[in-house]
């Protein structure tokens, strides 16, 4: 009994449901046909007739019990229809399930490659640390459809790069001597910190020299990731920094 239960649990739900539906149809239909057949024999006293194997006897017997055979045939035809339609449906479910599993496996593999690459690049930059970069958030920001098997660049990340370039260009313009309002080093740090945080990169406030070295390495890291994981021409290089 336990082995039967284990076999049922191991059977995919779609196949189990299809088999159950066919079984119910066959049991109900054939059971009804047998009931009609036996009832007809009893009600018509056919069981009292002498045994006769001639063509006329067989024709007469079948003529009186034909509805039971019609019910049986209709039941079998209906069960075959369910099996055919259900088989197609189960095959589709199996396909989508397999495709979903493959997409998930690709997502996990791609994420691991990205994570390992990011970690190796961070180690090359002494002003950066893994604890200041949320790998999962950064990955999800770049590849928002990865779980579905797609590794195209997300609109969100396109907008992140565009806005980052705008911030760099704005600070470049303000750093020019004589520009109205001038360049505020503290304001620039806060803007960069808030923007980087949207993709999981934590930028800490620091003295000018230390901060600029860290910012250089962050920009270098972003460019490196874009070159390695994004198709050529999909994303622009970060604008050249002219403020010091």
What topology emerges from the helices and strands here?
Blueprint: H1 2-10, H2 13-43, H3 55-123, H4 135-142, H5 155-174, H6 185-197, H7 208-229
Total DSSP E strands:
0
Which strand-content bin applies to the residues? under 5%
| Number of DSSP helical runs | 7
The shape is rod-shaped
Stretches where pLDDT falls below 50 for ≥5 residues? 1-5
Return the domain count.
Answer: 2
Rg is 37 Å
Range of helix content = over 70%
**Main β sheet profile:** none
What's the SSE pattern? HHHHHHH
Task: Supply the helix-strand structural class.
Answer: mainly alpha
End-to-end CA span: 78 Å
- Average pLDDT for all residues: 84
Structure description:
Helices cover 70% and strands 0% of the residues. It has 244 residues and is an all-alpha fold. Helix 3 runs antiparallel to helix 7 (208-229) and helix 5 (155-174) runs antiparallel to helix 6. It is rod-shaped and about 120 Å long.
List keywords for this structure.
single chain; 244 residues; mainly alpha; 2 domains; 0% strand; rod-shaped; disordered N terminus
Quick structural gist:
By secondary structure, the chain is mainly α.
């Amino acid at each position: 009994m336990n082995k039967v239960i284990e076999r049922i649990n191991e059977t995919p739900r779609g196949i189990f449901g299809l088999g159950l539906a066919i079984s119910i149809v066959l049991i109900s239909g054939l059971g009804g046909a047998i009931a009609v057949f036996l009832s007809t024999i009893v009600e018509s006293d056919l069981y009292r007739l002498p045994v006769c194997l001639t063509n006329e006897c067989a024709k007469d017997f079948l003529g009186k019990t034909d509805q039971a055979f019609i019910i049986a045939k209709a039941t079998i035809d209906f069960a075959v229809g369910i099996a055919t339609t259900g088989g197609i449906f189960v095959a589709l479910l199996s396909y989508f399930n397999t495709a979903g599993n493959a997409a998930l496996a690709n997502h996990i593999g791609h994420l691991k490659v990205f994570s390992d690459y990011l970690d190796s690049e961070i180690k090359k930059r002494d002003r950066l640390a893994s604890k200041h970069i949320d790998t999962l958030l950064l990955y999800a920001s770049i590849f928002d459809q990865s779980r579905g098997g797609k590794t195209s660049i997300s609109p969100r990340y396109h907008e992140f790069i565009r806005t980052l370039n705008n911030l760099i260009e704005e600070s470049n313009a303000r750093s020019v001597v004589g520009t109205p309002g001038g360049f505020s080093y503290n304001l620039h740090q806060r803007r960069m910190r808030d923007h980087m945080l949207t993709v999981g990169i934590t930028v800490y406030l620091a003295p000018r020299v230390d901060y600029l070295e860290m910012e250089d390495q962050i920009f270098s890291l972003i460019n490196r990731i874009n070159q390695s994981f994004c198709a050529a021409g999909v994303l622009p290089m970060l604008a050249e920094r002219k403020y010091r």
